[in-house]
């Protein structure tokens, strides 16, 4: 899903202070209604952000708890950060209700002052988080998007930091180390459906499919069945060479538990932020999706869903050359078959057709690729089930 296009202009700190001074405001309020003088801040060391929000705004209600968690975490880590709430509520009751959820400071409620600040900083939609700076140089424009993507790693919210994070993502995406994608210093394992833990180091040297899916998503449940079939076929025919790791988009732990219970493979822990990191690194916009990682830790394909849907386990090891071999084999198979036949089991002429998947009307087994199909009615026949009329 695409993120909202938060628009705000980052201006020097002095613009903010000048506007407050013009309205006779020389202090901010804390949650205890204490007055905090503007002169008490160390502007050289402290990162100050203006948080434009409102109690009536649903996206604001959704984002504020995330920002509270981030703020508390960074302050606990000793980071010099302060956030100043700029209310766009219609009345003081709405302002008070919203500010009660916040651990930071606020400009006193004044509709005209808040309007002036909103216009000066070109805030066209909320929530918006605008970092102030001493030199007037541009800081990160989409600060909310940056925080949702990177969490506390986004601090101190500068353009330089954004470029550093993008470079790290690029390095991870280009690959070479499976353990760096799936583990971090606080966790060196993935989980199995029975709750057991499997060390990520056990996956090194295997082909790994990162399966982005969720139990609530019907297309995911349909694709899971196809992936299970391919997974089991490879396990039976090639041994322990292929592993799948679920990167869940489930809504809660209970739903995640139900989802993984139906799967024969592994998963990232639901509470782990690595799930969101992988979605960002591989630019996952819709589910289901399957990213295939080679034994060397480098991505083979970000379109593994299409590969499995079309070719199943036949496509292993899922490289471009293996897919080309399958397609060449299919072409040769098609060239060896007649263009049309008259089968004794069906009254109409059957034409050769390439089908992704079908059920043979004679043997009632699943079929893929070549079929003899009827244009007049819904009838498909495996090439091996053909009994031509003499």
TrEMBL record:
Name of the top EC class for this enzyme: oxidoreductase
Keyword Repeat in record: yes
GO MF annotations in UniProt: thioredoxin-disulfide reductase (NADPH) activity
Coiled-coil positions: none
EC number: 1.8.1.8
Reactions catalysed: [protein]-dithiol + NADP(+) = [protein]-disulfide + NADPH + H(+); [protein]-dithiol + NAD(+) = [protein]-disulfide + NADH + H(+)
Superkingdom assignment: Eukaryota
Domain Thioredoxin: 18-174, 180-332
Pfam families assigned: C1_2, Thioredoxin_8
Keywords, ordered alphabetically: NAD, Oxidoreductase, Repeat
PROSITE patterns: THIOREDOXIN_2
Name of protein: protein-disulfide reductase
Organism: Gossypium aridum
